[in-house]
Amino acid sequence: MSDNPTVKLNPTGQPMPLVGVGMWKVPNDKATDLVVEAFKLGYRLVDCASDYGNEKEIGIGLKKAFDAGIVKREDIFVTSKLWNTNHARKHVRKAVERTLRDLQLDHLDLYLMHFPIALKYVDPEVRYPAEWYYDPNKKEVIPENIPIQETWQAMEELVDAGLVKNIGISNCCAGLIIDLLRYARIKPSVLQIEHNPYLTQETLINYVKSQGMAVTGYSNFGNLSYVDLIPKAKTAPILFDQPIIKELASSKNKSPAQIVLKWCVQRQIAIVPKSNNHDRLAQNKQLFDFELTQEELHKISSLNINLRFNDPADFDLPIFD
């Protein structure tokens, strides 16, 4: 099997790599070098978001990689995301134009609605990225009366304008997706969701795949990304300590991380793990010289306990309940 397998996106037919590098929580002073390093290691997808606050540094890394001849623009796949404060039709295009300037690109391969939540607009001159709180001092989250239909139609216009090749959604439940598909002129190409053996979301995944959408899973290692952010992440069992994960890692001479990532990609779910460590970054991509049996896949899936860490309910917006 190729070490750069892809999934074909609808409706464009564009191939999206199944294994990418995620840029969430990558420090600004590391982002440029990480992008260049990832391309040298063979990665071809970079998963960004304006909310991560490091798109300028990623853009410098992209330019460095192009100038050095490591990759060409047409060889790579760049994803970014529309933040909650830019859901109004008049703000969607401005948001993507800012992202494109920061990334030093003329188009994105994929633009996702980061959350199905519209929040009060924050002028980028006041604060960028805007994050969740309208006023960080007051810790206020202020919703805005903008339906997803308005936001989606504005995203469709980005495709018409050639700024974005594919559009998709993130952190959406099935009810919202069913509604969106009723009016979408351009259907979502991708659903990106939190996905790991503690949160398998199989019913949702089966539904969106039946609708011709690809799935990207983030936070593949469960609570490890959230220990410094969310109290319950500290007390949750470490995924890599689960007996089945340790047993498979040992029997296949792989790391626990590789077992979990293989469980994703073998089920045709794209992954965007990040690591600031060169060896782990290389390891996260070395997934195609071994296979898991159907029984082994099932055993890993049976770890599911519907444990979610990235949950706007923490901001009194319980979109998954």
Automatic annotation (TrEMBL):
<keyword id="KW-0560">Oxidoreductase</keyword>
<dbReference type="Pfam" id="PF00248">
    <property type="entry name" value="Aldo_ket_red"/>
</dbReference>
<dbReference type="InterPro" id="IPR018170">
    <property type="entry name" value="Aldo/ket_reductase_CS"/>
</dbReference>
<comment type="similarity">
    <text>Belongs to the aldo/keto reductase family.</text>
</comment>
<feature type="active site" description="Proton donor">
    <location>
        <position position="52"/>
    </location>
</feature>
<dbReference type="InterPro" id="IPR020471">
    <property type="entry name" value="AKR"/>
</dbReference>
<dbReference type="InterPro" id="IPR036812">
    <property type="entry name" value="NAD(P)_OxRdtase_dom_sf"/>
</dbReference>
<feature type="binding site">
    <location>
        <position position="114"/>
    </location>
    <ligand>
        <name>substrate</name>
    </ligand>
</feature>
<feature type="domain" description="NADP-dependent oxidoreductase">
    <location>
        <begin position="21"/>
        <end position="304"/>
    </location>
</feature>
<feature type="site" description="Lowers pKa of active site Tyr">
    <location>
        <position position="81"/>
    </location>
</feature>
<dbReference type="InterPro" id="IPR023210">
    <property type="entry name" value="NADP_OxRdtase_dom"/>
</dbReference>
<protein>
    <submittedName>
        <fullName>Xylose reductase 2</fullName>
    </submittedName>
</protein>
<dbReference type="GO" id="GO:0016491">
    <property type="term" value="F:oxidoreductase activity"/>
</dbReference>
